[in-house]
Write a structure and sequence with these properties.
6-stranded mixed beta sheet, Rossmann fold
Length: 250
């Protein structure tokens, strides 16, 4: 059984040396919509503020909100990339994150070598990677390019390889920041079927998206964030309606 329990999670980013206007402008561009305060002269951005969340088998949570609302930040906390300033995160089950599916690729290594490198980074054993190797290679349709360094790949080819590796995994908890694209229009139809199968296998899924249609299609509950704070949570249509309301937009 998979489980996510988040209690009173708050995340602060202290910004050192943020006194000049150029730094402030970069900060505001980075954290649009975030709460910005000062503590003993240090500028502090509150990425998340008092998040409570509990998910179990079968839950498909959609994260909704403007840019800077805290969606990606919450995913990174669930993935263990960020450690909360306060509160606790308790996760049971194998987590697979698509926050950066090309992470861990070595530009001078071949496509086949990168399958092993990326697979090991994602927690697979060498034997598990070998079992999946033929299937991954066939799905990419990269052929002899898999024998070449990935530095010669186009962005679409690299995304195909990363996508094939990621979706070969078995996950109990799936974290997604928008639906994965492959960068290749001809490849999209084939990729959609694989992606749907990948998502359906997860016991729990948390996905951040700006698309109402994606939230409706893949999720059964939603959490609306504003300035890192929960604004509404519950049924999809109810939360989407609140998202469009004047109360949220102001």
């Amino acid at each position: 059984m998979a489980r996510i329990k988040v209690e009173n999670v708050t995340l602060h980013y202290p910004i050192i040396g943020a006194g000049d206007r150029s730094v402030k402008n970069r900060l505001l561009n980075f954290a649009t919509g975030g709460k910005i305060t000062r503590d003993s002269g240090t500028m502090v951005v509150t990425g998340l503020d008092r998040i409570d969340l509990e998910l179990r088998d079968g839950d498909r949570l959609g994260l909704i909100g403007h840019n800077g609302a805290g969606k990606s930040t919450l995913l990174k906390v669930l993935a263990g990339i960020y450690i909360p300033t306060q509160g606790s995160v308790d996760i049971e089950g194998r987590v697979v994150s698509t926050l950066n599916i090309t992470l861990g690729f070595e530009q001078e290594a071949t496509g086949f070598e990168n399958i092993f490198l990326r697979g090991r980074l994602l927690g697979l054993t060498t034997a598990e990677i070998e079992d999946k190797l033929e299937e991954i290679a066939e799905f990419t349709e990269l052929g002899k390019y898999l024998d070449l360094p990935v530095r010669v790949y186009s962005s679409g080819m690299l995304m195909r390889l990363a996508f094939a590796i990621m979706t070969s995994l078995e996950s109990e908890i799936l974290l997604m920041d928008e639906v994965i694209g492959t960068g290749d229009a001809r490849f999209i139809h084939k990729a959609e079927a694989r992606l749907n199968e990948f998502m359906n296998k997860a016991k729990i899924m948390v996905i951040a998206s700006h698309s109402d249609d994606v939230i409706r299609e893949f999720c059964n509950t939603a959490l609306l964030l504003k300035n890192g704070t929960p604004f509404a949570q519950g049924e999809i249509e109810e939360v989407l309606e609140i998202y469009q309301s004047a109360d949220y937009q102001t």
